[in-house]
Amino acid sequence: MTGELPPDELARRVWHRLAPEGWPVSPDALPPGSALVGGAVRDALLGRLGSRPDLDLVVPAGAIGLCRRLAQRLGGTCVVLDQPRDIARLVVNGWTLDLAGRDGPSLESDLQRRDYTANAIALRLDNPTVLVDPTGGLADLAAGRLAAVSEANLLADPLRLLRGVRLSHTLDLPLAALSQDWIRHHAQTLGQVAGERVFTELEKLAADPRGHQGLAWSLRHNLLAAWGADPNAGRPLTGLGPEQAGACGLDASERAWALPLARLATLLPPAALGRLRASRQWQQRSARLRCWWQELEARPGPEALAEPRRLQLHGELEADLPALLLRLPPAVARPWMARWRQPEDCLFHPRSPLDGRQLQQALNLPPGPLLGELIRHLTLERAFGRIPVADPAAGAVAIHTARAWLSRRRD
């Protein structure tokens, strides 16, 4: 946060960092009494503001109607988030603006109903030289801590318990001792929250570089017990940090998706993902990863797998192999990553040299289970180098291999 500056100078610095002249909606287009609150103000104070921050705006009333009018005028989209609470989202030109009707008779009363003091700091748009801070958020940020506004505010929406863990690790702000106590004491109430909301929060936490630490903290303090998190996930979770990803040979773009996937698959069995209303694809990916981790941990190394099983591994995890490797020794992971990046590698990207139509025409085979078995056999032979890839005679070798296999089946 900006050092020991006078309050008006601090507010001016924050306003300058927010660069309102670049917003898709001019502050002048908003009704008198409007204010910017929440994450954008907090991040401007911490010097971690992105080029297009999400803007949370409080207006005196009529937020949904205002959002619809702005969307029509600017060519954006209005999404009603909460009709009873008068909250809507405007998406326009790559920006996201959340508009909410004021909760209470004044801006100060609205801020006092929020989750953490760092999120309860506002700038009035008609007087941005004053930071409105009724809960002591500036002092908490200056002290380097994340503090809940009150115990009652956390219980008003128990998702705030998990959000506090996420913000603490994302912002690198330790939770105040009393806030930690409240979160631990009320951990079971997270089970009252809609599963979709909990999973969205977990996805955000898992995507943070320090997310593995936050997930391990949540597990250790039973925050996810009601959702069926794996109680044995703590030790493997602690190893799923950026350092391990680097040691395993993943680049930055691969880490961005493989680390969150590996972390959540480690923490949440498929049944837990089902209760959290995660997509069927998420559940299937988690189930495959957990199955293969369990099998590989019982072996001296993946090379010990029999050829058909090894082929099955690469077929099932062709898209997700980097996530699997994050829990294997780097000495195994690095050469596998190098091979996985080669699209022509026939084991790491298994394909039959001939498709079903070609085999039917060449061998006069009808469609059915036998044809499927033959395709799997040819895929295996190609994956382990017994059918050449780039050789002009590869097609002929594949047909010969197929005839031989069919002959053995018929004998």
Q: Main traits of this protein?
A:
single chain, 411 residues, alpha+beta, Beta Polymerase, domain 2, 21 helices, elongated
- CATH H-level superfamily title of the domain at 7-142: Beta Polymerase, domain 2
Q: What is the class of the domain at 7-142 in the CATH system?
A: Alpha Beta
**What is the number of strand segments?**
7
H-E order: HEHEHEEEHEEHHHHHHHHHHHHHHHHH
CATH topology of the domain at 7-142: Beta Polymerase, domain 2
Average residue pLDDT: 94
Summarize this entry quickly.
By secondary structure, the protein is of the alpha+beta class. It is built from 21 helices and 7 strands. Among the domains are: 136 residues, Beta Polymerase, domain 2, CATH 3.30.460; 55 residues, no CATH class.
Q: How would you portray this structure in words?
A:
51% of the residues lie in helices and 9% in strands. With 411 residues, it is an alpha+beta fold. Among the domains are: 7-142, Beta Polymerase, domain 2 (2-Layer Sandwich); 356-410, no CATH class. Strands 3-4-5-2-1-6-7 form a seven-stranded mixed beta sheet. Strand 4 (87-92) and strand 5 form a beta hairpin. Helix 7 (159-171) packs parallel to helix 9 (195-207). The chain is elongated, with a radius of gyration of 27 Å.
